[in-house]
Amino acid sequence: MLTKVKTATLSGVRGYPVTVETDLHRGMPGFNIVGLADTTIREATQRIKPAIMNCGFRFPNERVTVNLVPAAKPKEGSHFDLPIALGIMMLGEEVLEMENTAFLGEVSLDGRVNPVRGALPLAMSLRSAGIKNIVLPAGNAEEAAILEDVNILPVNHLKEAVDHVSGERRLQIYKRKNNSAGGAIACPDFAQVIGQESVKRAIVIGAAGNHGMLMMGSPGCGKTMMARCIPGILPELTYEEKLEITGIYSVAGLLSDEHPIVQQRPFRSPHHTITQTGLIGGGAKPRPGELSLAHRGVIFLDELGEFDARVIDAMRQPVEEGLIRINRNLEEVIFPSRVMVVIAANPCKCGNLWDERKLCTCTPKQIESHRRKLMGPFADRIDMHIRVNPVDKDRLNELKSGGKWESTDSMRRKVVAARRMQEERYSGLRYSCNGELDEEGIKRYCSLDEESHSMMVSAYERLNLSMRGYNKILKIARTIADLDRKERIEQFHVAEALMFRIDSDMQ
Amino acid sequence: MKETDRIQMVRLGETGYPSRLAEIKNPPKQLYYIGNLRMLEKPCAAVIGSRTTTTYGRNTAIAIARCLAEHGVTVVSGMAMGIDSCAHNGALAGGGNTAAVLGCGVDVCYPPENSGLKRELETKGLVISEYSPGTRPERYNFPTRNRIISGLCHITIVVQARNRSGSLITAELAAEQGREVLAVPGNIDSQYNLGNNKLIREGATPLISIDDVLEPFGLRRITGEMAREKLSDREYEIFRLLQEHGEMGIDEVCYHIGKEPGYVNPILSVMEMKGFIFSALGKIFLANV
Q1: What are B217-221's contacts with CB under 8 Å, separation 24+?
Q2: Are B189 and A357 a contacting pair at CB < 8 A?
Q3: For residue A422, what are the CA distances in angstroms to A11, A207, A211, A337, A447?
Q4: Residues in A touching B256 (Cβ below 8 Å)
Q5: B259 to chain A: which residues are within 8 Å by CB?
Q6: Strand, coil or helix: what is B10?
Q7: Which chain A positions have a beta carbon within 8 Å of B275's beta carbon?
């Protein structure tokens, strides 16, 4: 006797379809699971037997073998409980055709079906495998129901699943509660930022081209506040992007009943004590790190100098490539990490170096070591370096009278328009925005006219630009031209881009 | 050449001994030196200040020293970190004479970070001390050394000094020796300018422009309207603004001319490349043209 039940397994943030084969044959009573199952799945033998019996069913008093196909792929997760339990209970019973239905869910000893991690990516993989109906825990229904072209059948108890399979009582198709942008965690509005117009201009440029930004300035001048506003000026997430991000959060177990779906661009601000695994992802069973949780959003490193230099160094490649590869003995796991990097840093250890009103207590040696720590290979790859000054008290009053500061809405409109130019230009190519351009892309899309070129040459000589610095300026100039809705880069685009170069002396 | 061969000595009363120094109450009995001693017979100005400084202080020291050197005035200072080093460097940049008076033997480099500067001074300028070669830089040497700095010079300029800086001692000694003391006025909010501002209150002559340093020597600056010539109208507008306000943040520039950062940024870049301004500490400064 043999049954087959469809389900899926996770590898990183991607799901893969799996078939659970259950066979019953004569011999010593026993229950074995084969097919590279991890501990949680092998423990299922202990969970499923009492669960089935507690529901009032009989557990076969013969030899049960469960095989997970494809056998060579490592499998993990407690969501195999439901398909395995059903596979056993269907043995020798009259059941409906289940070719187009998949099952996932963790089963308690009393037969209740508990929510699982990664329901959305699992469901997505089943969808692309052609499955039409997915039976999953009621707690995961809202999250999975974001998928528009499959039927989500929520289940609370093992009995309900059995009734569904036997055709006695079919499960109801789930309807999403809120299709609106509900559950949005609003980020602060730029209109709340007083003054700092030049920094906001820089942020518009950075967001428009997805350039990394390093903001340097005294403590309390508003760096963190402005960074928190950035997700709000990025273009709204598309449906596919929401799926992708929600999938990552689902795998990380960060979705809640209140926020079953990620609607907003993520903003992640890891503490500076974070480890490499915490930032990049990894572990014995690879889990996404902060970089992946910030995918298609903003990762904000507050006070770069405090982070462990090795951790920061490890970010370099993932940020450049937009993905993280983690190798485990049998497979390679890929996590996405297309992020906008925003960094805040103090100019010196005590932070007062740039503020004449306060006394900087650092010795020249400390200043130098702070500088060296900041300006490592990672910061060197950050496109835009921005200086932030505290807002002058007198200006504050001046501005208060008739002060109106640019709002998130107005900034987003500029960003969206510039992004649209880039989408058109790069459609069908491996780039999606100017920040991603490599040497080849820069050569093709950032060509300069005679005037701008001669400006770059004199900048190269006068301002001590490095070759990498030179390329970064070209990328930024491309974005400034896009913001200006010009296909050609003009001289003053280049000139403005030069404002964001690395301070050569950074005193 | 052995280190000791380069070191020369002159005794009080011998020819070559700096004449202005001989006039003071307690002139050193002998001077050890490396370099050209004759520069001390030219007009001399001491440019001094604290070791911890701001960009404003450093830039002003460089500008003053450079201006003096370009007009043939020897710049004397103490080769300490901060203002002193800037003074020497500014004079060297101006292609003029500069002398460092040390508080240790002339073969000792203190502070050690300045070894490059010292080598340059030995070849292009002058390093001088009353202490015999090999003397360690003891704390108590420096205040007595200061009487030589002021004693060698017609005027003493305090660029930037904190409240209890050693350069205030030098200024006091200069006044006792009957030499003129000038001080650069500093930002009233700044901790770094307390000393020099205090000197002004006590009667030191405030410098209200770089060119003022030439006045005691009866010199006039040779300058044209370079800025007007080389800058476009839009650039000149910002140039004038900076002349008026001194250092400014980009936001302030935008506010004053009523334009957006997108308009101001490119102009500032171009001006920086033309060498009229430079940016540091998140602000825009007028360069020393």
Answers
A1: B217/B43, B217/B45, B217/B71, B217/B73, B217/B154, B219/B71, B219/B72, B219/B73, B221/B67, B221/B71
A2: yes
A3: 33, 12, 13, 20, 15
A4: none
A5: none
A6: strand
A7: 462
Query: What b/e string do you get for A418-442 counting C-beta neighbours within 10 Å, with b at 16 or more?
Result: bbebbeebbeeeebebbbbbeeebb
The ipTM is 0.73
Spatial distance between the Cα atoms of A494 and A452, rounded to a whole number of angstroms: 7
Is the separation of the CB atoms in A155 and A105 below 8 Å? Answer: yes
Q: Which two tokens stand for residue A110?
A: 């009393």
Q: What is the pLDDT of residues B183-230, one digit of tens each?
A: 999 989 888 999 999 999 999 999 998 888 888 887 766 443 667 777
Quick check: B261 and A201 CB within 8 A?
Answer: yes
Reported as a pLDDT band with limits 50, 70 and 90, residue A309 is confident
Substitution target from A359, A389, A451 for chain B, most B beta carbons within 10 A: A389
Structure tokens at A132: 């039409």
Task: State the smallest CA–CA distance between residue B137 and chain A in angstroms.
Answer: 20
Q: Which two tokens stand for residue A170?
A: 């079919």
Q: Cβ–Cβ of B249/A499 closer than 8 Å? A: no
pLDDT in tens, B119-137: 999 999 999 999 999 999 9
Instruction: Write down the pTM of the prediction.
Output: 0.74
Residue B185 burial by CB count (10 A; 0-12/13-18/19+): exposed, middle or buried? Answer: middle
Q: Which of A196, A202, A498 sits opposite B269 (nearest CB)?
A: A498
Nearest CA to A117 out of A268, A249, A267, A266 is that of A249
Compute CA distances B57 → A123, A424, B60, B82, B191, whole Å: 66, 51, 5, 9, 12
Tell whether B262 is within 8 A of chain A (Cβ): yes
First-last CA distance in chain B: 40
CB contact, 8 Å: B252 with chain A? yes
> Count of A–B CB contacts within 8 Å?
96
